[in-house]
Design goal:
Length: about 150
C-alpha cells in the first residue's frame, strides 16, 4: 500500500525521536511505500499546506491513504476533510482507529504529537492499517451521503 505522510512542525518537535520520521520508518518496516509530503525540519509551517499535499496525492491516485500529524491532529484533520473524497479521522484510542476503518472507511489518519506518545501513534497506525472497512450497507449509505 502507498501511503502519503505529512505533518506540520509538530512532526519534528522536541528532542526526538521525531514523530514524522519515526512514522515513515514504521510504515516502511511494515512494507508500505511512502510518499513523503513534508515538511523535513522543525521550522514553523502551516498545517493546511501539508494536509493539502497529502490529500491531493490521494485524489491523484499517487497514494491510497494518508497519515497526517500536527499538535493535536485536529487542525490538520479539519483541513484534510475539506477535500472531496477524503475521510480524515482524528484518533486517540485503539477503538477510534478500528471504528474509523470499519465504520467510516477513513482514508486519512490524523494523529497528535502533543497528545499521544510515539508508541501510541504507531499502535494506532497498525490498527488503522490492519482493520478493513466492514462493507456494511448502513455504513456505505452514510459515507455516500458525505459525497
Ligand atoms: C501548531 O502550533 C499547532 O497549532 C498545530 O500543530 C495543531 O495542533 C493544530 O491543530
Amino acid at each position: 500500500m502507498v501511503i502519503a505522510v505529512g505533518s506540520d512542525h509538530a512532526g519534528f518537535e522536541g528532542d526526538g525521536p521525531h514523530y514524522k520520521p519515526e512514522i515513515i520508518k514504521h510504515l516502511k518496516q511494515r512494507g508500505c511505500q511512502v510518499v513523503d509530503c513534508g515538511p523535513w525540519g522543525p521550522e514553523s509551517v502551516d498545517y493546511p499546506d501539508f494536509a493539502a499535499k497529502v490529500c491531493k496525492a490521494i485524489q491523484a491516485n499517487e497514494a491510497e491513504r494518508g497519515v497526517l500529524l500536527c499538535g493535536t491532529g485536529m487542525g490538520i484533520g479539519m483541513a484534510a476533510n475539506r477535500f472531496p473524497g477524503i475521510r480524515a479521522a482524528v484518533c486517540v484510542t485503539p477503538q477510534m482507529a478500528e471504528l474509523a476503518r470499519s465504520h467510516n472507511d477513513a482514508n486519512v489518519l490524523c494523529l497528535g504529537r502533543r497528545v499521544l506518545s510515539i508508541e501510541e501513534c504507531l499502535r494506532l497506525i497498525d490498527i488503522w492499517l490492519d482493520t478493513p472497512f466492514s462493507e456494511g450497507e448502513r455504513h456505505k449509505r452514510r459515507i455516500a451521503k458525505m459525497g
